[in-house]
């Protein structure tokens, strides 16, 4: 017995149908992304005080203009 993912309509044409497991996988994938977003939003930023270029944060004005040097101890 061979399982296929095609069906024949009344007109005699073959129509491709995705396997049911694909729908379940996509639903699980969407739930995973939504869960990761909710947890990430609840936890907050990984490095508090680090902002995207051009944005202002809650840092004092003297720290906003200071260049950020990372690594190699300089």
Characteristics of this structure?
transmembrane, Secreted protein, 2 helices, single chain, membrane, 74 residues, transmembrane helix, mainly alpha, 8% strand
Task: Show the helix and strand layout.
Layout: E1 6-8, E2 14-16, H1 20-43, H2 61-64
* Average pLDDT metric: 76
Give the SSE string: EEHH
* Helical residue percent band: 25-40%
For the biggest sheet, the summary is: 2 strands, antiparallel
Low-confidence stretches: none
The count of β-strands is: 2
Structural class by secondary-structure content: mainly alpha
What is the CA-based Rg, rounded? 26 Å
* Intertermini distance: 70 Å
Amount of beta strand: 5-15%
Total of helices: 2
Shape: rod-shaped
Q: Trace the largest sheet across and list its strands.
A: 1-2
Protein name: Secreted protein
Organism: Streptomyces diastaticus subsp. diastaticus
Region (Disordered): 47-74
Keywords: Membrane, Transmembrane, Transmembrane helix
Task: Give an account of the 3D structure.
The chain is mainly alpha-helical and 74 residues long. Helices cover 38% and strands 8% of the residues. It contains 2 helices and 2 strands, in the order ββαα. The protein has helices spanning 20-43, 61-64; strands at 6-8, 14-16. Strand 1 (6-8) and strand 2 form a beta hairpin. The longest helix is centred in the middle third of the chain and has 24 residues, at 20-43. The model has no long low-confidence stretch (mean pLDDT 76).
